[in-house]
Amino acid sequence: MTLQQLRYAVAIAEHKSINKAASDLFVSQPSLSNSMKDLENEIHTTIFVRSNKGIVITPEGEEFLGYARQMLDHYRLIEDRYVENAESKKKFSVSTQHYSFAVEAFIELAKNFGMEKYEFAIHETKTSEVIENVRLSKSEIGILYKNDFNGKFIDKILRDNGLEFVSLFECGIYVYMSKWNPMADREIIELEDLQNFPCLSFEQGDNNSFYFAEEVLSTLDYRQIIKADDRATFLNLMVGLNGYTLCSGIICSELNGDEYIAVPLNTEERMNIGYIKRMEMPLSRLGEKYVEELEKYREKVL
Fold first, then answer.
1. Closest CA relative to residue 247, chosen from 275, 227, 276, 273
2. What is the 3-state secondary structure (H, E, C) of the chain?
3. One pLDDT digit (tens) per residue for the chain, 302 residues
C-alpha cells in the first residue's frame, strides 16, 4: 500500500467516478483502475463497486477512506512542518451546527491567513453530518453542543467513531428572536410564555432524534413548531411570524444585523459548546488558530 494509492482512492471517492478522478490526477483510466484493484486485493476489501453509472462506495470502503484521509492529513502535517515552499494550496475545512459565531470565527481565520495559499471550506449542516464529516476527515473540526440530556449519547457516538469532544465554553439558555417580538422587552422569559409563539427548529433529516436536535429542551411538547434547514430562513421566520429559537445567547450582529435579540430563559439547563476532532490527531496550524478564534467567544457569553 502506498500514499499514491491512498490519494487515488480518495480522489475517486470525491469525484464518484474513475474517469473524472483519472483526468484530475493526470493518469490513464486503466492505470488508475489497476492501481485500485491491486489495493483492494492487498487489503482484502472491496472499496468501490463499479457499474455503468459510476462507482458506489461500500460500507467497508467508507471506513477505509476515513483512515486514508487521516493518513494523508498526517502526511500533510509533516509537509507543512518540514517541507518549505510548498506550491499547492493547503486545505482547511470546518463542519458546524448552525452557529453564527462559528462562521464569524471562520471569517476571521480566512482574513488572517488569506485565501491565496489556503483552500477554505465551511459546512453549516445537520448534527449527524458534522460528526460524519469529521469521522471521514472531510472536515478537521466539527462544532456542536452537549448537555445533560444528550451528553452520554453524543459521547458514545463520538467514541464509536474514533472522535473526541473538546469543550470551549458553557452558557445558559437564551430565547433568540426579532426585536419586534412581543417578548423582546422582557428581562427574562418563562417556559410557558413560549407556547404563544412558533418554535423554530433545525431539520435533522433521517437522523431526526431528540439527541441530535440543535436546540435544547427538544423534548418539550411545543404548541407551535416550524422546521427549517438554514439560519437565513430562521431569521425571516423570526420577523414574519414572531418565531424564536433557543440558543447560547451569543449574537453576531455584524453578520445577522441588529434586528435580533437574545433574552435569558428561566431554566437551569446549560449548554456545553465545543469542537470535535479525531482522537490522537493533532490539530493543524490552521486548526489551532481557528480554535483560538473560537475561544475568544468565552468573553461574549451572556
1. 273
2. CCHHHHHHHHHHHHHCCHHHHHHHHCCCHHHHHHHHHHHHHHHCCCCEEEECCEEEECHHHHHHHHHHHHHHHHHHHHHHHHCCCCCCCEEEEEEECCCHHHHHHHHHHHHHHCCCCEEEEEEECCHHHHHHHHHCCCCCEEEEEECCCCHHHHHHHHHHCCEEEEEEEEECCEEEEECCCCCCCCCCECHHHHHHCCEEEECCHHHCCHHHCCCCCCCCCCCCEEEECCHHHHHHHHHHHCCEEEECCCCCHHHHCCCEEEEEECCCCCEEEEEEEECCCCCCHHHHHHHHHHHHHHHHCC
3. 888 899 889 998 888 888 888 888 888 888 888 898 998 999 998 998 887 777 888 889 888 998 888 888 878 777 766 665 555 667 899 999 999 999 999 999 999 887 777 889 999 999 999 999 999 889 999 999 999 999 999 999 999 999 999 999 999 999 999 999 999 999 999 999 999 999 999 988 776 678 888 888 888 888 889 999 888 899 999 999 999 999 998 988 888 888 999 999 999 999 999 999 998 888 988 999 999 999 999 887 75
At 213, the amino acid letter reads A
Residue with C-alpha cell 487515488? Answer: 8
* Amino acid identity at 295: E
